[in-house]
Specification:
The complex is a heterodimer of chains A (261) and B (414).
Chain A lengths: L1 H10 L3 E7 L5 H10 L7 E5 L10 H12 L4 H12 L7 E5 L1 H7 L1 H10 L4 E4 L8 H7 L5 E2 L2 E2 L8 H5 L6 E4 L18 H11 L3 E4 L5 H10 L2 E4 L1 H9 L2 H16 L2
Parallel strand pairs in A: 1-2, 1-9, 2-3, 3-4, 4-5, 6-7, 7-8, 8-9
Helix pairs in contact in A: 2-4, 5-6, 6-7, 10-12, 11-12
Chain B lengths: L14 E2 L2 E5 L5 H14 L3 H15 L5 E3 L1 H7 L3 E5 L10 H14 L4 E6 L3 H12 L3 E7 H6 L1 H9 L3 E5 L6 H14 L4 E3 L10 H9 L1 H14 L5 E6 L3 H7 L9 E9 L10 H4 L1 E5 L1 E6 L24 H8 L3 E7 H15 L5 H4 L1 H12 L4 E5 L8 H7 L17
Helix pairs in contact in B: 2-4, 3-14, 4-5, 4-9, 5-7, 9-11, 10-11
The chains are: A alpha/beta (261), B alpha/beta (414).
Chain lengths: 261, 414
């Protein structure tokens, strides 16, 4: 529901968005982490849908998707995870994030209906630019689901109005060209305030910034210019390499960083 | 008439009916639109066309001959079989037709870094070759599995100054190389030109690659009219992504009397589940920027393709083929690994031509068709690549060890 998204943005000055890959490493563990996230400061959950060919993701997310698929995770599993989460939480928005083909195979209308029923609030479909997203947008409308658009450093001033037209909930600003996790090897500290302001002005919606955020300090810095901060790869990596406890501690510190802004 | 004018499809959204389109991350949309505009300008620019024609004639070696395969024809005992000899091009396959066009376009756009994906290595070699010719930096992504089975091409690319990057993710074959090339492009959009090797990917690639390969069919049509005084009854080509087939078919699409037959790789058999026949055994879906037929499960996860031929080992097919299939203009059949191996050897012995494993798939269906059409029939098969690159794979499949063959034991069979 866009209502749940709007409420989240209106009550928090900087929203902290955490991405996890649904079903990584299996349904039970992933569900446990998902259900715990709000207690560790997460305002919006981005739940990844595993896909065999994640063309915009780096190796950390790709490998998480492989683990999830190995344990039998499908789009249906992801919807079940959302529904399970909703049984005990009615405030934290859930945004599904993934690639188009699994949704296309389920059928856009069927997916929209099932997502709504599961308590999902919206979706980010990486390989569905505005030029191709009309069928899914149409399917989302009757269910009040937000199809979140992405703006990137290559989205120029001429294109930006087309990118934000008809979108709701928020706009996701991809802070760098590259795949997810790119900046884990760099500093990812460029100044993006002008771009964020331009996207906010063009869309009239909150702007969350993702790609390249891995420390509480950077989260705080982004928080001063954007309405929200997304962290994905760093959390997925910590879950896999350090375990749930350490990963949730990282989530807490990142959330505190974002909320301090 | 301008030679790029004879196309009605795709539409302005890059659609061939319900196939094609531009399913890419937002970061890539602006460069794809920029490419489309640059291509639309170049293809009607006489200077660009003249430059391309000049390189095709004097560097690639076009026109390629249309050869009457007399002994194969006798062996089949039916229709006359002609080979369009695109394996005689510089670098040994049809791939360079497209690389020449795209890299001239890249120069025109001021791009300095060329990236490509490759399966059999033919597209990688062709890209590395043309990049070397123009002094451009070249990076080729290749699945680790393919690097092993196409070693000679890997070495050739390196000799040509290209950097070959091994891709270990997924099945470590062509589709994964394409994922990795897309990741490179999304990271280096400013200076990089992605030279896609087949008639797939986001619009404008399927149309652009087809246009650059359409010279195959244009030449073949003029040559067969000259040799036989009539159009062929059928044009046959193997299909992975489908660039050599689309190149042969395109000029014949309006000629309703010419059957267009694409031969997919059936691997160990379409019923075995271990194949690469996207049209015969797949269903429509979205991958690598376009909607087309794909090998996939019921959850929309892409299935692994299987073929002895690295160039056909891809779980999708160009969207124009998907469309020609659905409207019934082209027919799509398949051939197994075993058939390809058998006809590779027959072709070598009968015609003195070592075909690549890819067109070796087209030979058995061409022979079947020759029998079906009878003596009055006329067939053009695209011999799209030469088999030198495949000798290690073929030796292994035939149980012969040529890599270690220095002790005499291994060479006595020859």
């Amino acid at each position: 529901m866009t209502q749940r998204l709007n409420a989240t943005f209106s009550k928090t000055s900087t929203v902290f968005v955490a991405y996890i890959m649904g079903g990584d490493p299996d349904r039970v563990a992933s569900q446990r982490v998902m259900n715990a996230l709000p207690a560790y400061g997460v305002d919006i959950i981005e739940l990844g849908i595993p896909f065999t060919d994640p063309m915009a993701d780096g190796p950390v997310i790709e490998e998480a998707g492989i683990r999830a698929r190995k344990s039998g995770t499908t789009l249906k599993t992801i919807l079940d995870m959302a529904a399970d989460f909703r049984r005990t939480n009615s405030d934290t928005p859930i945004i599904l994030m993934g690639y188009f083909n699994p949704i296309h195979q389920m059928g856009e209308a069927e997916f929209a209906k099932a997502a709504h029923k599961a308590g999902v609030d919206g979706a980010i479909i990486v390989d569905l630019p505005p030029e191709e997203d009309a069928p899914l947008r149409k399917a989302f409308e009757p269910h009040d689901l937000a199809l979140i658009r992405l703006a990137t450093p290559t989205t120029d001033a001429a294109r930006l109005p087309d990118v934000v037209r008809g979108t709701k909930g928020f706009v996701y600003y991809v802070s760098m060209t590259g795949v997810t996790g790119t900046a884990l090897s760099g500093d990812g500290s460029g100044d993006i305030s002008a771009q964020v302001a331009a996207v906010r002005k063009a869309s009239g919606l909150p702007v969350v910034v993702g790609f390249g955020v891995k420390t509480p300090e950077r989260a705080a810095q982004i928080g001063t210019i954007a309405d929200g901060v997304v962290v994905g790869t760093a959390i997925v990596k910590a879950l896999h390499e350090q375990g749930e406890e350490e990963a949730l501690a990282l989530v807490k510190s990142l959330a505190d960083g974002a909320h301090s802004a | 008439m301008n030679k790029f004018d004879n196309m009605t499809y795709p539409d302005e959204r890059g659609r061939f009916g319900e196939f094609g389109g531009r399913y890419v991350a937002e970061t890539l949309m602006p460069p794809i639109l920029e490419l489309e505009q640059a291509y639309n300008e170049a293809k009607v620019d006489p200077a660009f066309i003249a430059e391309l024609d000049d390189f095709l004639a004097h560097y690639v070696g076009r026109p390629s001959p249309l050869y009457f395969a007399e002994r194969l024809t006798e062996h089949a005992g039916g229709a006359k079989i002609y080979f369009k000899r695109d394996e005689l091009n510089h670098t040994g396959a049809h791939k360079i037709n497209n690389c020449m066009g795209q890299i001239l376009l890249a120069r025109r756009m001021g791009k300095t870094r060329i990236i490509a994906e490759t399966g059999a290595g033919q597209h990688g070699v062709a890209t590395a070759t043309v990049a070397a010719r123009f002094g451009l930096k070249c990076i080729v992504y290749m699945g680790a599995t393919d690097i092993v089975r196409q070693k000679p091409n890997v070495f050739r690319m390196r000799l040509l100054g290209a950097e070959v990057r091994a891709v270990h993710s997924g099945t470590a074959t062509l589709k994964d190389a394409m994922n990795e090339a897309l990741r490179d492009w999304v990271t280096n959009v400013g200076d990089t030109f992605y030279c896609i090797g087949t008639v797939a990917g986001p619009h404008p690639y399927p149309a652009m690659v087809r246009d650059f390969q359409a010279i195959i069919g244009r030449e073949a049509k003029a040559q067969i009219l000259d040799r036989e005084g009539r159009l062929p009854d059928a044009a046959v080509a193997c299909i992975g992504g489908g660039s050599n087939a689309m190149g042969l078919f395109h000029d014949f699409v309006p000629d309703a009397s010419v059957r267009l037959i694409g031969v997919e790789a059936a691997g160990r058999g379409v019923d075995s589940g271990l194949h690469a026949a996207s049209l015969t055994g797949g269903s429509p879906g979205v991958l690598h920027g376009n909607r087309t037929y794909l090998l996939q499960d019921e959850h929309g996860q892409i299935a692994d393709a299987h073929s002895i031929s690295a160039g056909l080992d891809y779980p999708g097919i160009g969207p124009e083929h998907a469309w020609l299939h659905d409207i019934g203009r082209a027919e799509y059949v398949s051939a197994t690994d075993e058939e390809a191996l058998h006809w590779f050897q027959e072709c070598a012995r009968l015609e003195g031509i070592l075909p690549a494993l890819e067109p070796s798939h087209a030979i058995p269906r061409t022979v079947d068709l020759a029998k079906e059409l009878g003596k009055d029939g006329l067939i053009i098969m695209n011999m799209c690549g030469r088999g030198d690159k495949d000798v290690f794979t073929i030796a292994e499949a035939l149980g012969e060890d040529i890599a270690a063959g220095t002790d005499g034991e291994n060479t006595k069979a020859y």
